[in-house]
Structures are given as C-alpha cells and as structure tokens.
Amino acid sequence: MNQQMDAQRRRRARGGSGAGGFLTFLILVAVIVYVAHDPELRTTVATCARNVLAHVQSG
User: How far is residue 22's CA from residue 44's CA, in Å, rounded to a whole number?
Assistant: First the structure.
C-alpha cells in the first residue's frame, strides 16, 4: 500500500504532463497543416505511411 502511495506522490510531483501533451498536440497540428499545403510533401508522407503500414501488417 505504501509503495502505491509513494508512486502516486512521485507522479504528482513531476506534474506538467498535461501541458506537455498539449504542446505535442499543437506541434502535430502544425506539421499536419504544413504537409497539407505542400502537394509534393503530402505525396511523400502518404507513400511513407503506406510503406510503414504494409511493413507492420506483414510482420
């Protein structure tokens, strides 16, 4: 029981996970918007995503 309470205290003391998640979300949105405006880059990203998906599904 004490180990669980100690782990919870450590997680609370670290904090900032919500802010880090929001920053990651903003960066992801910015990258998506940037890719959406560049047709050549959009094609490259789509091809790469298809290749990764095919590799994951095959193995």
Answer: 27
Q: Which amino acid is at 7?
A: A
Q: What token pair was written down for 3?
A: 């180990």
**pLDDT of residue 12 exceeding 90:** no
CA distance 50 to 58: 12
pTM of the model: 0.50
Q: Which one, of 14, 30, 34, lies nearest residue 22 by Cα?
A: 30
Distance CA 40, CA 14 (A): 42
For residue 14, the SS3 value is: helix
Segment 15-45, tens digit of pLDDT: 555 667 889 999 999 988 988 898 999 899 9
